[in-house]
Amino acid sequence: MSLPDWLKNRLQLPAIAAPMFIVSQPELVLAQCRSGIVGSFPSLNARPDGVFEEWLQRLNSELTDDDAPFAVNLIVHRSNPRLETDLALCVKYKVPVVICSLGAREEVNAAIHSYGGLVLHDITTNAFAKKAIEKGADGLIAVAAGAGGHAGTISPFALVSEIREWFDGPLALSGAIANGQSILAAQAMGADAGYIGSAFIATEEAVAVPEYKQMIVDSAAGDIVYSNLFTGIHGNYLRGSIERAGMDPDNLATSDPSAMDFGGSKAWKDIWGSGQGIGAVDAVVPAADRIARFKREYAEARARLLG
User: Fold this and answer.
1) C-alpha angle 254/258/260, rounded to 5°?
2) Cα 122 to Cα 60, 105, 271, 284, distances in angstroms
3) SS3 content of the chain, % helix, strand, coil (to 5)
4) pLDDT by residue for the chain (307 residues), tens digit each?
């Protein structure tokens, strides 16, 4: 793997938990890190003022060198009014891994590098990948077709292959990864780690209403709708939540990308994001149990290939 040794040596499984709006908060992050994968959360989940610093203090005090490190996701688009303040706190508390989204900012990368932090930038195309590295990111998260959140449309096979033609640094792959076999497949394609989000919505520690968790369990790839209506950027959402809101998932309006909303408009608070891999999720369980299953599946898949 091309992950730095200080990160690789603390992983029990080559996986990073994706930061999910509202869902990812300290209890879930702690469970993920203690089970040996990178846990993460968006800084914008920490509200009101002062909560983000409290979360960083807690994670730094409760995690040990026996745990995997944690990551914070920063929206670096200029529409984020909290970026400067949240970045300063990341530097103050020396956040080990920072995941940047929606823009490539040299000054953000430099601030994280000032204390030795690792910057991973999520991208949906090879062109965006090149721009992120040119601006100083250390590694990439390839958000391929089928991923939850603001997903791309390119096959993971194509996207990873194109990136690996010119980049040999840290690379994680996102896109319908919800079991151990998929993590191993991501490595076989050339990625260093799988990037997993939706499977952690259906966990006891996730901050999601029970209906959301159960809809993850009850749904499959065919129940995912790709739309830019809700934030201005295309993403994948649960069909059932759109129907519950009184809309036709097959006839959604389009949104103006210039009116991006990453704070989560109250108008769409019950529209639930998800990737296409949720067919592998069959119950709401503790995060540690889900990761233990990933580890078993990963080991079994690897043994089959070697056998």
Assistant:
1) 80
2) 24, 13, 23, 28
3) 40, 15, 45
4) 589 999 999 999 999 999 999 999 999 999 999 999 999 999 999 999 999 999 999 999 999 999 999 999 999 998 899 999 999 999 999 999 999 999 899 999 999 999 999 999 999 999 999 999 999 999 999 999 999 988 999 999 999 999 999 999 999 999 999 999 999 999 999 999 999 999 999 999 999 999 999 999 999 999 999 999 988 889 999 999 999 999 999 999 998 766 555 554 555 788 999 999 999 999 999 999 999 999 999 999 999 999 8
| Pair 123, 141: CB distance under 8 Å | yes
What per-residue string of b and e applies to 131-140 under the rule 16 or more CB within 10 Å gives b? ebbebbbbbb
Structurally, how many domains does the chain consist of?
1
Tell me the chain's radius of gyration from C-alpha atoms: 18
Domain that holds residue 55: 5-207+276-306
To which residue do tokens 């939706």 refer? 198
In total, the chain counts a number of residues equal to 307
Residues 6 or more apart from 51 whose CB is under 8 A from it?
A: none
In a domain, 149, yes or no: yes
Q: Is residue 37 domain-resident?
A: yes
In one letter, which amino acid is 123?
Answer: I
Q: What letter would DSSP give residue 22?
A: T
As a whole number of angstroms, the distance between CA 279 and CA 41 comes to 24
In a domain, 177, yes or no: yes
**Spatial CB neighbours of 77, under 8 Å, sequence gap ≥ 6:** 101, 102, 103, 260, 262
